[in-house]
Structure formats: structure tokens, C-alpha cells
Protein 1
Amino acid sequence: MPPGEPQPATLSPAEVAASIRALPAAAWYRLDRIAAYYARACPLEADDLRQEALDRALTGIRKCPIDVDVVRFLGEAMRSVASDSVKAQKRKATQAGGTGLSLVTLEDAEAINSIVSPSATPEAALIAEEEARRIRHAILDLFADDVVAQTIVEGDMEGMEAEEIRNLIGLDKTAYASSRRLIRRRIDKAFPEGWKS
Amino acid sequence: MTEKRENRDALIRLATALAEDVLRASESEILAEARENKIDVESVASARRTQFGSIAATIARRRLTEAKAAVAAQRRPATVTRLDLVAARRQLERLLAQDPETAQKLTMAARRGQSLSDDDVLDMLADLKELGFQVDEDEQG
């Protein structure tokens, strides 16, 4: 957000806590699924991701805008924790190897101190990267028979917006949503225990 | 190395897209998915609510400890703790003698100015300072 712009109104930690207490069962299942996806992509377990996200929400480290659904807010918090942990692991590996400098935010520093194993080494980071490369290709191979789905997954991996992907492959919203459901189901079936196994 | 590092970032981005799909799914779709995966959502929710309660309790205890420490720090301002203790006792006696009405409000022990611990003396001076009394931090014994 550019400096000088007003901050969006946010819920207090007590209000966030009240919203979380009121979550229906399906919402907790959603959070479990989201934690599982991020856990596949970072050094942390799903339980750790969920707990750290809840901790950040309750302590006010992360603030929930009043117009954002609390499940979405917690999902975003988990994304941030997962992303921080990957950055922290890379940074620790760089420090251990003494091979260079990297820019680290306050959140990265917190992640380093609180949630990432202190045993990160350049070798461990290389292994993690190699594993990520293997998983990335394995996921894409799942859709070798479906070029549309494969393109969508590649677009996701590149961080493309839904509309960009739809325009790229010429799908309407309904067909796109249908493809997305197929993609998630196929990934879940192929990796029931997560991508790390 | 750069290409390899992109792989982990790519997986985070894919996870974000899958998470978005989960968020956009309707409640009935989510419940159907759970049934298909043989997951009892009520059991999941019960376990997560317990976990949440535990996290909330831990944070509440942490906040209480921090609040206690902050109150203790406020009750003993640096200006008062620097006072020589003999001078502090003398100053307390003088202030109480100057204002019997306030002295009446304090405890019997305080009014006597006897058998008060050093901490009691410093706490009372801090209280008096809060009440607007002139506590001389430079007073020497």
C-alpha cells in the first residue's frame, strides 16, 4: 500500500477470535485442506502452518480486514507462513554456506527464529530444491493427457491470474471451473499423503 | 540455482491456486469432497476447535504475564528507585505528615512509617507521586 493511504479497517484480535470460534465444521475442513496444500510446498507440517496462522491472528501480528472472510484471512496467513519458511530456509542455507547476501524482511526473521529447523544447510536446501523440481514435473506429468489442464497448472505455477489463463486457453468461466475441479481432484488422488512422499 | 529455486516458489503458487479453489467451493461441494475422502468433518472441527482453544489460552497466559510485568514496572518508576532508601523513608514520613488526610487513607503501618519494607516505601512514594505529590528524586540521605 502506498504511503499516506489510509489503512483498511481491521478486526481486533478478540473479534477475530470470536469469528474463528463461530466457524462451521466445513470451514475447519477447508482450513485443513489449505494447510495440506501449503505444507506440500514448504518445510513445515500442516499442523505447524495452521497453528502459526492462528497464533499470528490472535496476537494481532496479522490483521484481518473487516470485509475479508476469516477463513480466507487464515488461508492467506498460512500462505505467508509457508512462503516465509521457504525464504528462511534459503537464507539459512546461504548463511551456512557463506556464499552471499539476501534481503530478509522482519517476517522472514521471525520465521527463521520460530518455525524453521536450525539445521538448514546448503545441502538440505539443494535437496529441497531438487525435490521441488521432481514434484513440479510429476504434477505436470499427471496432466500429460489433458493439455488444457496442464496449461492451467503451469499457469498456476507461474502465478498467472485466472482470467489470464482463461484467455490463454480460450475457456469460458464454467468450463474453466470444471477443469479446476478436475485438476484438484487428480492432484489429491495422486498425492494422498502430500507431495513430499 | 535460480531455476531450482523457482521450483519451490512454483509449488507455493500452485498451492495458492488450489487454496483459492477450496475457498471458492460451495459448502455442499466441500462436504461432498469430505465424504468422498471419508473424512468426518465434525470430528475434524472438534479437534481443531480444541487446538484453537489451547492456542488462545496460551496467548492469554502470555498476555497476562506481560501485563503483570508492565504493571510492576509502572509501579516502580526509575526516578523513585534511584532514591536513597534512608532518604526515601524520611521523605515518605514528611509527605504523610504534611497531608494527614491522605495519610488517613493509607494503611496503619504506612501511617506509622515503621516496619515497612523498602519495597513498601518505594511503592508508596510512587503512589504519592501519582497522586500529585512532589517527590524529590534528587533528595540525598
Protein 2
Amino acid sequence: MTEPAVLVDRLFAGYGGPPVLREVSFRVEPGRTVCVLGPNGGGKTTLFRALLGELQPTAGTFRLEGRPAYVAQTERTRLDFPVNALDVALMGTLVRGRWWLPSGRADRAAARGALERVGLADLAATPFGELSGGQRQRALLARALVQDARVLLLDEPLSGVDPASAALIDRVFAELRQEERTLLVSSHDVESARGFDLVLCLHGHQVAFGPPGEILDRATLEATYGRELIVLDDTAPARAVTIQHHERGHAHGQERGES
Amino acid sequence: MSGIELRAMLELVLAGGFCGALGFWVLSERLAYGAESLSHGLLPGLVVAGLADAPLLLGAAGGAVVAAALIALAVRDPRVGTDTGTAVAVTGLVGLGALLALAPDAPQRLEELLFGDPLGVTTGDLVAAAALLAVGGAVLVALHRPLVASSFDVAGAAALGLRPALLRFALLGLLATAIAVAVQGLGALLVLAVLVAPAVAVRGHARTPATAMLAGGAVAAAAGIAGIQLSSLAGTAAGASVALVLCAAAAAGALLPRF
């Protein structure tokens, strides 16, 4: 049996009080893609923060194939910070060490190559805060590409992204799959989850883990989303809406497919 | 222009140059309240140094250590809260400093410790300021790329293998050192101006962290020279004149349209 790219064993994590994520166990082989589904507050970001080492697990263990790259939700980055798209991509070179030296020519070439790959070569000098939401997401993806990690954690990379950026990000995902890299992508989009090799459903705890064709049934989705799931059409394949309450205080619905 | 005034200008160019550059990180990491607390809280150390006829730099350094320890102790109780605990500790320290300074046999006048005396700098003060600029500047240059990555996106920086908490600790160390050196010229109350005002003046006008730091250092140095000249022409207190010019620069910079 090959070494897993991600191995999580009975993981509990929280922020000082009771754990907000409980009893999570799953195993992912190299080159597989995993969609992490769950409502807001369901534990998706907490899981990623634990896997990044930013949050100490309160119990359980995990192991990753090398240091993971991370693509955050752009709300977690500083839009007023004076960096441009190239600067953001260049941050990925910090994993190579020599952080005390200025970026070298090879670093800049790698950063420019990553920006080219995500379609931002022409906007390399544009301040990060002046990029659109989708372009910002692509700049963060470029940083992860420069990092050249075997495991990538992507926190709702397609949330609020324009169609052109979504298409470009999808294309890069496909390339990363071909390169046998392991992707963990958190999402609200049940329909897009069907395109992944595996799905992890979270609702403060692990609801289900497995291939989408096996676990994405109505019972699992209701256990995952609770009252945030509204079934619009119960005939197979059924359509459903999840109500997402964002931190900014507004809510919006997205259409979901359900079989 | 007298030799005393030239020495004052040199002190403000050296220490102010570093503080103005450091101010970019004070604002970026939202450390302005911490800087104010530390600078005010070290007053007893300054007074004790004055009473013992010891170098003020030594008193400032000791005062900063004691203030940091007391603040850390005061904020430990979650029922009180960080801001309240800090306010209580700092007010107590300022009160203690005033009590000691107003004792009949206190040689150093309280107003000099509170508002500084740039015209009274010694050769030792100038050497300390030059060392601050050289060593502190070198540390800022070496830490530049990790600081940029961490300040832009803490979670992303952790994924790059950086230690954001350690970087913040290093910044706090630089801040405490800068305050201990610059407090001679501007005093415990006004030293905050040289740490915050230049960064406010250039914020929004710089495209990169490096240019923001260089511009902040230049504004601080220029304000130091202008403040001493203003004091000389108008017959006003030197430290207060410099602080007023710094604040005027901050207001002008904030009001100027961004480009």
C-alpha cells in the first residue's frame, strides 16, 4: 500500500473552548482530489487551519505528504497591504529557505510563470487590493503553485468568483490532478463536489467520507447542512438550495443538485 | 544654528529615521496601542535612572521590560479584558513615575521625561541612535520578506513554513528598543508621534512595504530637522515642536489624494 498523502486520525480541534471540529478521520492517496462540504461554521476552515499547523489539535493526529500549500479565502488577506500580484506569487518562494535574502532571478521567473499559468501575467504589477475577487483568488493560487507542494488546501476558491476566473481555476485544478498532486477543496457547491474523487462532509463532526456517488444522498446532505438545506425538487436528481450566512451579515442561496 | 541644535537634529534623523521606518509595521500589525502603552509605561524606569544618575537609556530599557511584564500580567485575566488590563497597568505605571519624579530630591524634571529634551542629547545618546539605525535597520532588511508574507496573510505565511508569532515577537522587541532609544529626544508621551505619524503620512501613497518604510523614515528625519528649526525660531519646546511637525505631516499625508 502506498503512503497516504493525507492521513487524519480522530482529529479534534477548537479555539480554546469546546472543540468546534470533532472526530474526523480520513485517508487520501496521492493524486486524489477531495471536496470538503459543510455549512458555515461546520469546521471546514478549522480543519484546514489544523492541517496547516496554525491551530493545535486538541486530540488526534494527522500526517501530510510534505508541507501543504494553502489558498485562503481572500477575506483573510489584507486588501490594504501594499503588494502587487507578483509580490504575492513571490511569497511562495519563501519555502525554499534563504528568507533573509532578496528574491533572486530564479524566484522571479517562477513567480512570473505561476502568474502566467493562472492568467495574471498582464496584471503582475497591479496592487492586490485592486484586483477583482476572482483575480485575487488566482494570485493566491499562483503563490501556492510557486510553493510546489504535493498537497494543496484550498478554502472555497470558487466562492464569489467570476465565471472567467472560475474556468481558469478549474483548468489549473485539472493540471494539478495530472501532476498527481493531492487537492483538498472546501466548497458549498454540492454539484461541483460530484467532480471530485472523494467528498468529506462536515457538520462540526465528520458526517460522511467517500466517493461522491456513494455518499451524496439526501440523508447525508441533510445531516451536513441541517436547516441550511432546502430541497426544491425531490425527484431524482433533486435540486436543493443551501442558505449561507456569511460573516458580513448577509445571506444568499446557491442552487445545488442532489440525487 | 548652534552645535546643540545640530546634535539634536542628528539624534532625530538617526533615531527618527529608524522609528519612521518601523512605523509601517506598527500600523500594519496594529501595534499602535501597544507602542503607546510601552512608551508611557516605562516612565518609572526613566525616573529611577534620573534619581540614580544612571543613563536614561538604561532606565528606559529596564522600564520597558518591567512595563511589558506588568502588562502581560494584567491582561491574563480574561474577565478584565486585554485593553482594560493594559490601561490599568499603564495608568498605574505613569502614576508611579509621576510620584517618583515629583519627589523633592528628584534631580530630573518630570516634564523632560514626559516631553523629552532633544537639545540635551549626549554623545552616548547619539551612538545609541546610530546603533539602533544600523542594527535595527539590518534586522528589518533581513526580516523583510517574512514580515511582508506574514502581515499580508497569516495563515498563508504559516503554510510557507514561517512563524508569524515569532515574527511579531521580533517586531515587539524592535519596538521596545526603538522606544528606549528615542524616548531621550521626545519623552515618554511624545515618542509615539515618531513611531506612528510618519507611517500615517505615507500610508496610501506607497506601492510597496519597502517604499513605505523608506518614505516613513525620510518623513521622520525631515520632521525632526523642521521641528528643531521651528523651536529655534519660535522659541518653543524642542520635543513638542518636533511632535507637532510630525503630526502635521501625518495630517497632510492623510489628506493628500492617493495616486
Protein 3
Amino acid sequence: MSRKDLFPKWIAGITGWLLPTALIIAWAVAVQNSWLSSQILPAPADIVRSAINLTASGELAKNIAASAVRAGWGLLIGGSIGFLLGLFNGLSRTAERFLDTTVQMVRNVPHLALIPLVIIWFGIGEAGKVFLVTLGVFFPIYANTYHGIKTTDPQLIEMGRVYGLSPWQLFSQIIFPGALPSILVGLRYALGLMWLTLIVAETIATSSGIGYMAMNAREFMRTDVVVLAILIYALLGKLADAGVHFLEWRILQWHPGFRRH
Amino acid sequence: MCIFWNGAFCNGIRVLDATKSIFLTNTEDYPVAAQANLKTSSNLSLKLEHVSKKFGDLTVLENLNLDIQPGTFVAIVGRSGCGKSTLLRLISGLDQPDTGAVFYDDRIHRRLNGHARVMFQEARLLPWQRVLDNVRLGLGKEGKDRALEALKHVGLEAKANEWPSVLSGGQRQRVALARALVHEPRLLLLDEPLGALDALTRIEMQQLIEKIWLETGFTAVLVTHDISEAVTLADRVILLDDGKIDLDVSVDLPRPRHRDHPRWIELEEEILHRVLNKPGK
């Protein structure tokens, strides 16, 4: 009997949540006994209260929606460019020779260092924020797509040629599925960078978004709202990660490493 | 021995030697045999003329001439590095000879085409496609029934919807064999396909390959380092040494061949002796 069988499924399902729950309880106790000033860290109950208030007023939904739109556009644009360029450079030696050096140089510039320039170029509107997210998600998707294509098993490609596959079939049946695990890793990294970039971008003059909500709350010393904003980022990050997990599970069923037992 | 999928039709055929033409012309007695051989009645004849291949300074094949009759089963044996796999790659069209040419039916063969299929040492199944989809690779939408039929021939129709990763090594090679057969190739090239299998699975696979070859009658070229495998399966065994043909013997044993047949033992000894007495440089 394996050790897994000792625990019922539902216990295995909640083990990941044990530590966060314990931390929240410790936190609540610390604030309750005034070991921690509520100016530094508000009580969990206060945060819940402000979450309810902000939800009721519709402000929370509006800000989350504003952030999600920026994140979505940035991911769509940056992801598409990264994916296409990764494909292009992975499949064509000429393109690789021509473009890869440039991409690698640009990659080493921290994209957040461009913020002053972005403000000059785009002002403080939506375009600048989407642009920053685009830059942030571009590289992980580019690099992993490129890597995935490059590391497709050459023996399988040779087999495909022997079996008379056309170039398109070679790509769609062998090269692309072979690169998918790597591309999905890129997507996961990209999602992490997407939120990170957004947090920073939304602290530049804005009038909506979770980052704006947090900055605004800071002005009024509303630490409960600030912490709420941070928690929402954490949850959104977790949600995005779960989404990729689901994709991996659906798309990579063939892969022994992703099969559910 | 029964050489057909269902034993009912194989009453008359017991002893078949290398001359496949007898088998082909006597088909009126065996209706199933006639059907089975119709589609491959134009087995491919293969010819190599003055073929040489170098990799850098290393000459792998030197002025090689070889003539293979349609429908025969030829085994190419030799030490590792003697050029046998290179030869197979030239025959398939995966590589090009530096000088000389490969002829399919007296026509120069330059590129990969639909006449030949290769079975590699590794099964090379696509891990992201289910077994059935692997077999119908390159067949398009309508290939499903044919792929199922081919899987049935190798005894794996029950695994049609499995992922390749759950199959054993022998099962994967059987799927690879089905994938090659589904195209009804006129020439089947086998590049040590059984090299990585355990001894028992290997013998099973040899029997399966022989059975399918007897039924469909394609021209077969098998590269192997296992001399007993060559003597068991082939009509003709060619020993390559140092890029040249060192020995070319026909195996005139009745099928199915038994490894305790005196002639079988004699042949294996002869070839083995020849290989071992030519120490590599």
C-alpha cells in the first residue's frame, strides 16, 4: 500500500491551504492582542469588512475589471508576438541569425526600467500600461516557444518525413505538440510577470485598477484596503496559475508527468 | 505453418522457400492469398550502383553494387560501424550517396517517397497521439478503418485508444510495424527494429514480421547485428565489412525456420566466423 492511500482524497486536497490558514489565524490573534498596531497591519476582520463594503459599492468589481482588461490585452498582444517570433526563430535558421541577438539584448533590459520613457511616449493612459504588460509577457513566451521548437525530437521529425508528412503536417502534428509543454511553462511565467508588471504600472497615475485602489488607500492610511489589494493580486495570480494547470491537464494528457492518478 | 491471419485458408502451403514467384503464381488455389498479393503484385526491385558515401575523411561505403529482387527479404549484417545503417538511409532516400545511385524499379531514387517505409530501432511513436492516430499518421481522415485493420494484424486493436507511453517496448514496435504496413509499402526498410527488445519479445516479433511479409510480400531490407535473426528471416544475407560487401549468401531454408536445423546452424556459423575473423582496424 502506498502512503497516498493512508489519507482520504479531501485531506490531500486541503493540505495546500493549511499553512495560509494558520498564518491568518496567527495574524488575527496578534492584532487582537495589540501585538501589532492596526496602523501597520489591520485585523483580518477589518479587511473582510472593507472587502464587503467595496464590493457593495461596486468599486471593487470596477477596479478588478479595469486591471483584468489591461492584463488581458497585454497578455494577448505580448503573448502573440512572443509566440509568433518564437515560432519564427525556432523554425527558420535565417530568422534566428537575424533576430535572436537583438531579442536577447532587449531581453536583458528590465522592462520596468522603461517606465519613465513609457510615460513620455504614452502619457498616463491605458496604452502605456498595456505596453508594459506586453513587454513583460513577451519574453518568457518567446524564449519558451523558441526552446520548445528547438528541442523537438529530431528523430520524430525524421520519422514524419519518411512517412510523407507535408511541412504543415510536420509542424501541426510533430513540432508544435512537441513544443507545447515548454510553451505552457512560458505561459505560466508570463502570467506571473503580467501581474507583477501591472502592480507597478498601476501605481503610476491612474484612476482605476487594483493598483490605483491601493495607492489611493495609502493616501488615507487605509491599510485594510491596501492589504485587500495585495490579497486580490495573490488570488488573481493563483487563479491564473490554476488556469494554466487546467490547460496543461487538458492538453498534455499524453504526458506521463501531467496525468492525474 | 499458417501464413495467413485465419488458419482456414492455409491448408496447402507448408514449405515456402526464397522464390516468392512460386507463391505469387500459384495463387489461384488460395483465394485469400490471391487477394493478399494483388495490391503488392508490383513489389519493388532495388538496385545500387557504385554507391559511395563519405562523412568527412571517413569512407563509410565504397563503390557498393547491390541488386535486390522484388519480394525478397534481404538482411544486412556486420559489426557496428560497418556502414549498414548508412546503407539503409541511402536506400530510403534520407541521405544521398556521394557517388553512384540508388534505383527503385530501374528508376533513380533521389528523395523520400511513398514506396518505401522505414521502421527504426526506436518505435518513434508520437507520444501526444493515441495509438490509432499514430498508425494513421499521414493517411488523412479516411484512414481510420485501415489503421484499425493494421493494428489488428499486429494484435493490438485493443490498445487503439491508449497513449503510447503506457505500452511496453515490444508493443510500441508492433504499433510502429502497423504504422509502416498501413501504407502498403512496396519496400520495407528495417533498421534494427528489434535491437532494443528482450529475447522473447524479439522472437515473437520476428515471427510476426515473417508472417506479415509472407502474406503481403513486400521487398524487405533488414539491418541487424544479430546473425541468427538474419538467418531466421532473410532469403539472402549480406555481410558488410569496411564499406564493402564481404559475403553474400542466400538462405535456402524452408519456412518457418527452426534454429536446430543443421543447415541453419551451418549458415549462422559460417557468417559468424567470417565476421569474427576480420577484426576491425
Protein 4
Amino acid sequence: MILQVRDLKVSFRTEQGVVRAIDGVSFDVRTGEVLGIAGESGSGKTVTLLAVMGLITDPNAIIEGSIQYRGRELVGMPARDMRDLRGREIAMIFQDPMTALTPVYTIGWQIVEQIRAHQSISKKAAWARAVELLAEVNIPKPDEAAHRYPHQLSGGMRQRAVIAMALSCNPALLVADEPTTALDVTVQAQILDLLRKLQKIHGSAIVFITHDLGVMAELADRIMVMYAGRIVERSDKADILANPRHPYTRALLDSIPPLDGPRPHRLRTISGAPPSLLSLPAGCSFAPRCPQRFDACVAKPALTGSGHATACFLAVP
Amino acid sequence: MTVLYDIKGVSKRFSIGTRFSAQGRRTVHAVDDVSLSIMLGETLGLVGESGCGKSTLARCLARLYDISDGSLVFDGSDISHLNARQMRPHRRKMQMVFQDPYASLNPRRRVADLIAEPLRIHLNLTESQVQARVAQLLEQVGLLPDHAQRYPHEFSGGQRQRIGIARAIALEPRMVILDEPVSALDVSVQAQIVNLLADLQDRLKLTYLFVAHDLSVVRQVSTRIAVMYLGSLVEIGAADQIFAAPAHPYTQALISAVPKPVYADGVARNRIILAGDVPSPLNPPSGCRFHTRCPVAQQKCRTDRPALVQHRDGRSVACHYPLVAPPG
């Protein structure tokens, strides 16, 4: 077990009141596994990742619960210790590579800086390692690419450089926020392929979020579906995709137009829109949109089941 | 079938840089010699990756851009070089819906005014007629009457897109150009908008040009699909045909690259992963523009640019060695 999150709650004090972005999220990440977090905007998936990375610095944020990385508690860890852990043991890949890289230094310089922040090796050795990393992420002519600035590279190449940087210290846990969303579909295919290969070689555990269930199917071993700040379903990829139990997961999968077979006359939809986090329904947060809601849904369903866990009164395992 | 919009040899070039910049003034061929016909009542899907020129083409067709070359004949009139004033009567018949529902609505105006604006500009209606029409439009796009007095920020992304659609159909146009209308929306909301667009098309007999990069959405909505790469059309044909048996290697790679939300462990996915990135349109490759990434490129592809040729099965393909041989 590399990461244990228990009853994590994150709220933000705002002028309109307290917004509960995450409401009691618990999950484990096992060594070397790929956990995908799926959900729509406002589901709390990004806040979950940022909490794990210790990157919620907003003074109005209230973080409760526990996040244990290899037995060390991350909630409340001093910023200095957290910074030491970040980059060395937990690395992050961001959605937009242009904002993750500084435009004023070369790719090579940035990777060298990252390496030397965590390891005491010479500049020359660090540079050689940077070129090696660029080669590993399949950047053509890595020794030349190391001398280039981010704006001189294409989106796909930039994302490769960001991945190279994330891998520079051989992290045990890689956290990725929509790693392929900003990329074109043919480039996305390359990056997904690369991430899978690197994961096999390095054996890092990966936690990533995406709204694209296709990407989820390609990359994840296990899938966790979030809705309005809670986990609604969690299981192996096969269970979630082939045998979803939560009405939300089912509706989400049904609302994607198919890529082959007959085209449906109409797409199945979920009525309404996700609830505002300022005024969440008292019971199950999906109930107002759920086609199968019944009397019990006025209470909050707990996430139950050990293998295939579902937070729904209908899904009795 | 009647042709509603006939597009012949349309090019759009942009000049970038100044004479003082490092490379001097340069020309980008954003859209390069595109010819196609949009049929009355159909949905033509226009797909391609970023930088392929699909949005530029859509804006040329909406005459938001002046075209550099070619001709545009819409509903029987040549609108290739009309100025803004001359375009006005045609604008009534051709409207546009934009990608970002947050950026395309004026935040300081109420929904009623946003929807009434095209009515006030183009039609001579009394205020009560305008209000009645606004109420009718709100109902048509699935919004409530009391939404009329609210401001755009009070709505979710999906609702804002409904407002954008209400504006576009207010004048009962013949054609609506939709530039990535659902890509800013969550999946569950996306399906609602796709269904709404289909309903409106049935009810109002609309013709759509649907520009998108999401292939599963395009397959769902389109009668025919046109695929662009680096400013040119590489393939155009019936939607089912394109997806079942793509003829251009790029179309095939594009479709195969889309990750599917199905569990397919053990089943080998015959996915084609293209090498490299889309080349810069500033300096497009010689010959076939796709040859630098094409898995089946041959010598001829490096030197000769293939023309868009119509096959007997109805589709047109710009490839020397199409994957599906022209029948007969």
C-alpha cells in the first residue's frame, strides 16, 4: 500500500458560505497500480489530487481526514517536508504542459534543476541524465531538444518533457491531472502508449484523473467514479466498464455516443446538471437527477462492498 | 438532393509576422483549395486535429473571414465577396453557434435581450411580438420562461449553450454552423445538447455544418463527414462508410486513435499510432501533406500531391494509395 486516504474532507470558506468540495473520500493506492478517478467538472477529482500533492495552499481551505503516504501523514505535514517529498517520491504531470514549464529556460535546464533539487550530483551528470530521460520519453534528437525552449516544441513534445521531468527522480507515485486532455487524439494515443510503457518499466503507481472514460479504459487498472465530492463507485476497470452498478456510472457510460455499431436515434441523457456544492442535497447527491430514486435516497448512502464498492441503496452486492 | 451551399476552391491565407521579425512576413495556408457541397437538410461533420483549418473553414463559410480564393454559393447567391452590409440579408439564413458558451454571450445583457437581438436587427416586429417569440424560443431549447430575465452567469455551461442555440435559430435560418458546440461541456450535458440539436433539425428542417474534434459525437450527428488535415480535405463521405471502412490512411489512424470506454482486455486493439506531430502549416511537406506521418507512404507521395477524387461508392478521397480501392 503506497497511499491511504481516509475520510478526506476539503472545504473552502467563500463569501457565499462554506463550499464542501470533497465530502469524506477514502481510497487506497497499491504499489505499482494505476488508479483512475473519473468525474465531471465539480465532482472533486482535481481537489482530491491537489490534496494528495499538498498543493491546496488557499488560506480559506479546511482540510480534514488523513492522507498517508507509506505510513507518513501528509495532512498537516510542514511545507518543507512536503516539498522534499514532492518531486522526489511523488511527482505530478499537469494537464497543460505550457503552464507546467517555465518559458524562459530550456527544457534541459529545467530537468537539471529538478534533478539537482533532490539529488546531489554534478551539473554535467544531471545534464546527461536529462538527455537520457528525454530519450526515454521518445523525444527525437534528445541532445538537441534539451537545448530548446518550451515554445519551440509542439504540445505533444512538451507533455513528453513534463513526463521526463516527473520521472527524473524515479517517483514511487505519479499523480496526473488530465494528462492527455490538451492533446490531439493522435498525439494522445502516443502519450497513453508511453505512459503505459513507462509505468511497466518503472513500476510507479499512478493516480490520474480524466473526464474521458475512453482514456480511463486505456490507462487505469482500477476506476473510482466521483460525483459532487463523493465516491459513488469504485472497482476494477472491468467491473466499472462492463458491469456498472451505480445509476450515475451507468448513465455516464450510456451518454457517450458509440464509435461502432448502429447509431442510436437519440442519446441517453442525465436530466439536469450537477448540483451546486453550496447547496448539496441532504441525502444522495445524485438523487435529484437519478431515474431510479426512491424513498431511501433522502439518506446519504455509504460506500459499501469490499471489491466492487458502490454508494447506492439499490446496488446490494 | 439539393445543394444548399456550394464551396469551390476556397483558400484562406493569413499573413503573420512583420517585415522586422526574424523570418520576415510569412504566409500561413490555413485552408488550401477546399471544395465541397453541403446538401439541404443534412448534417455535414467536419473533423480534424487542431491546426487543420476546420474552424477557419467554418468561419470562412459563415463569412466571418474574407476568403483569399475560390467561390461560395449559398442558397443560389454568390456570397464570396459581399461586404458586411451586403451579407445582412444572407445572415438571416445562416447562423452560427460558438464553442465557448462563456465567451460568446454578453455578460451584461439579460437572456431575453440576447435572444431578441437578432430579431430586433433583422425583423420589423413590435415589442410584444418580440417577447412572444423569445418565450417560444426559450421553450424550444428547453429553458423556462422565467429564465428570460436572468443574466448569463446564472446559468450552467449546458444552459448557456441552449441560449446560444436559441439566438442562432431565432431568425429561422436554413443553415446553422456549429463550431465545437459541445466540446466545452461535460459528457452528461453534451448528450442533452446533441439530442436538442437533432430535435431542432427535425422540427425546423435545418442544415448543419458541425465542426468538432470528438469523433464519437461527430459520428452520432453527421449524415456525411469531411476529414481535414493541414488545411486540405483528405476524405469526405457518408458517416457510416467513413467509420466502417476509412479509405484515407489519416482517417483510419484518426478513428483508431480514439480511446473507447469499453473493457477490452486480451482483445488486441489494432490501433495505429502515428509517429510525430502535425507539421507546421507555415512549412507544409511537399507532395501529399500527410506523407511524413503516413504508415503506407511511397515515393510518389513525397512528390505528387494527390487530388480529391470521387470514388464509385460516393465518397471522395485524396490519396494515391487509398485503403479501400475504388470499386469497379
